[in-house]
Design goal:
Strands 1-2 form a two-stranded antiparallel sheet. It is built from 18 helices and two strands. It is globular.
């Protein structure tokens, strides 16, 4: 039975602009900006290393600190949104993200930059889960489906755009500031979104029962520990050749995850408020949707990372040229994500496995076209487009289907869970396929890099086929 006495209600009044299109634009713009910062710093890393005399380990933390804080705190941000209010947490997270971006751009040394990057990731983790929660609560029926399609399209374009925008800003060297504009560009955008968000986001109204719910601190500590022990070796272990501590960390993560599951189940049986409601995990099709989302995001991130390594390291392309190469995949991903619902309903069951199959074909085509150490010719762009379309067909219906059965009072739990799975899928994809590529590229030169890329693209195709083997999508009733 669904209870309506304890769920937070988002109310609107004369102080807010109630146009849903403007609301969606504001929250997705913040989503895009936060995603941009996952990738934009990769392009600026060499310049940062030279200008700040950063060690290799420090540079890794500059790049990865954002991702670590972001992944660890996503579910916490979702739960805080349910308790404190989605509007408050969105605006608070956006303010922290914007201030930290300014601090990053003004940082005088690597220590400061690392600390501010962690703060940036924390701000994103507070802000981003509110996007899905607000979509769940403010949109219904076909409007929700269209909003979720736009959300999934932003995920792809943010990744590719980060490399393009980073390349443009670093190459421009505005006013002799070098790498600093990759952070400072967030400041005027963040301020504009804060002003608009204060006007268009629905005001938070909470019942006394909701106020009485406490944050599940033991569950938070266990989950944060498990995600930290998984995330840190994923982002740092590869360049350190997977030392012993990384494998011990993985084992510790599994142990803490088991403790977290046992504690949360016990808390739910006692009538408490767990960090993730067990009923969300038991929703029809949720487990398979989590698998699809993790695999599709892993394939997407592995493809972006390894092809970037090949284009810049193997073929010697500039950061800007390498970023622009991903344009077709990003555009097609976004277009398919926005339009897949227009396909006949009888075809919807086959979209996800069909998408994975198309992604596998695209990956094999990319590997084959670049196998001779050349640039691939014009045929590369249809292959990249097929890969982008396939990943989009696998991801977008999976996300929409997973959220279709979620009740409004469980929106925060589902948002935090799926946002975390998306992020962890990307991290695992970079670590797994990046390690494979670097191990296969055992020498310098375009041909060695091309051989490593072909091997990696075969592995990506195998991963996509594994996603297809999970079966057809069943529409929620």
């Amino acid at each position: 039975m669904t209870s309506t006495t304890t769920r937070p209600v988002l109310s609107k009044d004369g102080g807010t602009d109630n146009r849903p299109g403007l609301l969606l634009g504001v929250v997705l713009a913040a989503q895009f900006m936060a995603l941009l910062d996952v990738f934009i710093v990769n392009v600026a890393a060499p310049t940062i290393r030279v200008e700040l005399s950063a060690s290799g380990a420090a540079l890794q933390l500059v790049v990865a600190g954002y991702t670590i804080a972001y992944a660890v705190l996503l579910i916490t941000g979702a739960r805080l949104g349910a308790l404190v209010g989605h509007r408050r947490m969105y605006l608070g997270g956006l303010a922290l993200f914007t201030a930290a971006s300014l601090a990053c751009g003004l940082a005088a040394g690597t220590g400061q930059l690392i600390a501010f990057r962690l703060a940036q990731g924390a701000g994103a983790a507070l802000m981003i889960p509110q996007v899905l929660s607000l979509i769940q609560r403010e949109f219904a029926g076909e409007r929700r489906v269209r909003a979720l399609s736009a959300y999934s399209a932003v995920l792809a374009t943010g990744a590719a755009a980060g490399q393009v925008v980073g390349g443009i800003l670093v190459s421009a060297d505005l006013f002799g500031t070098g790498w600093r504009p990759v952070f400072l560009v967030n400041v005027p955008i963040g301020i504009a979104l804060l002003v608009l968000g204060a006007r268009v986001l629905p005001r938070d109204a909470r019942t006394e029962a909701t106020r009485a719910r406490a944050l599940d601190l033991p569950g938070l500590v266990l989950l944060a520990g498990a995600v930290s022990l998984l995330t840190v070796p994923l982002v740092l272990g590869q360049e350190q050749d997977w030392p012993l501590w990384s494998w011990l960390s993985f084992g510790g993560s599994l142990a803490l995850l088991a403790l977290f599951g046992a504690y949360e189940s016990r808390l739910a049986r006692r009538g408490g408020a767990p960090l993730i409601a067990p009923r969300v995990l038991r929703l029809p099709g949720m487990g398979r949707a989590v698998l699809w989302i993790a695999v599709s995001m892993g394939v997407n991130a592995g493809f972006l990372f390894t092809l970037t390594l090949h284009l810049q390291g193997g073929l010697g392309h500039s950061a800007l040229r390498a970023g622009l190469t991903f344009g077709p995949a990003a555009v097609v991903f976004g277009t398919v994500g926005l339009t897949w619902r227009r396909r006949p309903a009888r075809l919807h069951r086959a979209l996800i496995p069909g998408g994975f199959l198309l992604a596998a074909v695209g990956a094999l085509a990319v590997g084959g076209l670049l196998a001779d150490g050349g640039a691939g010719g014009w045929g590369l762009y249809p292959a990249l487009g097929a890969l982008g379309a396939g990943i989009s067909l696998a991801f977008s219906p999976a996300l929409t289907g997973a959220l279709a059965t979620v009740r409004p009072e469980d929106a925060a739990d589902a948002s935090g869970l799926l946002a975390t799975v998306t992020q962890l899928g990307q991290l695992i994809g970079v670590a797994a396929f990046g390690t494979l590529f670097l191990a296969a590229a055992d020498g310098s030169g375009a041909q060695n890099s091309a051989d490593a890329l072909r091997t990696t693209m075969i592995a990506l195709a195998v991963a996509a086929l594994a996603g297809a083997a999970a079966g057809p999508w069943r529409r929620a009733r």
